[in-house]
Amino acid sequence: MDIRLVPLTADHLIQAVGLSELAGWPHRERDWQQLLSLGQGKALIASDRLIATAMHWDCGPALTTLGMVIVAPTHQRLGLGRQLMQAVLDEIFTARIELHATQEGVALYRALGFDDIAGVHQCQGVVAGTGRVSPLLPGQGLREMRGDDIEAFIRLDEQACGTSRDRLLHALLAYSDAQVIEHEDGRLAAVALCREFGHGRVIGPVVADSPAVARCLIGAWLERLDGGFVRVDTPDPALAKWLVAYGLQEVNCVNQMSTNGDAGSAGSVMRYALASQALG
Q1: Helix ranges (DSSP H) in the chain
Q2: In b/e form, how buried is each residue of 43-78, taking b as 16+ CB within 10 angstroms?
Q3: pTM beyond 0.90, yes or no
Q4: Cα(279)–Cα(172) distance, rounded to whole angstroms?
Q5: What is the pLDDT of residues 10-65, one digit of tens each?
Q6: How far apart are CA 97 and CA 87, in angstroms?
Q7: What are 145-172's pLDDT values in tens digits?
Q8: CA distances from 262 to 23, 65, 86, 105 (A)
Q9: Distance between CA 6 and CA 193 in Å, rounded?
Q10: Contact, 255 vs 101, CB < 8 A?
Q11: Which of 32, 38, 3 has its CA nearest to residue 280?
């Protein structure tokens, strides 16, 4: 079997959409284009057909995320997933690598040195049951993000993730709308981005200094998106249950895995929703 390992390029993306559809993933060509613009990847080609992909994104000096690992059903159980993963890992030099694994991939990733950290709950559905936004605390304000909030957002995200993701966040802001909640003294209490993805829109990343303020901000987005299809990937099981009141159901729970433990959050600031399972 003549199988070639090549860099993943824009020329592969139409076939990549078909590959992700076979895996049951909702990625449109535009979603693939955005992911490729933010990172890089490898592809396996057989008879001029794309049969496998894997991508990675350097989020900052200490963290890389890895995802979009797909092998066509016709070529599974041939060791191609391991071959492709190893080719991508050979390109990564950051201290820690994170990924979110389907149940089918967990054994391979453990064999490659990844350890389980947590679960991430994939919640999605058509938004309903609006009109129940959690109230702001006295002195807090909800508003659109401004340009002068960006550096504060990056610092808040760093507290939540344990490492700077400034390159990724600057890039995501080009594709996203953003709302913030600020304290009376002007400090950011929470930030939530929202962008088009798959069947509708995805809310994330969301970082906040308390569960209450995270719910308030996510609720504000859901009010705006009433009647639309929305996805939220959250590591917080309580938030996943709370989203049911808005019509979102948990459809999957994936393993968050890492090669070098969990950097963890600093203080009370937490990550309540991912940008995506690929990007973290």
Answers
A1: 13-22, 29-38, 80-89, 106-111, 150-161, 166-173, 211-224, 237-242
A2: bbbbeeebbbbbbbbbbbebbbbbbbbbbbeebeee
A3: yes
A4: 10
A5: 999 999 999 999 999 999 999 999 999 999 999 999 999 999 999 999 987 789 99
A6: 14
A7: 999 999 999 999 999 998 899 989 999 9
A8: 28, 13, 22, 20
A9: 33
A10: yes
A11: 38
- Name the residue type at position 253: C
What is the identity of the amino acid at 189?
A
State the sign of the Cα–Cα–Cα–Cα dihedral 81, 86, 91, 97.
positive
The DSSP bridge partners found for residue 43 are 6, 53
Q: What are the structural domains, with CATH classification, of the chain?
A: 3-94 (3.40.630.30), 123-273 (3.40.630.90)
Burial class (CB in 10 A: 0-12, 13-18, 19+), 227: exposed
Give the DSSP H or E segment for 119: strand 115-126
What six digits make up the tokens of 258?
Answer: 């890492």
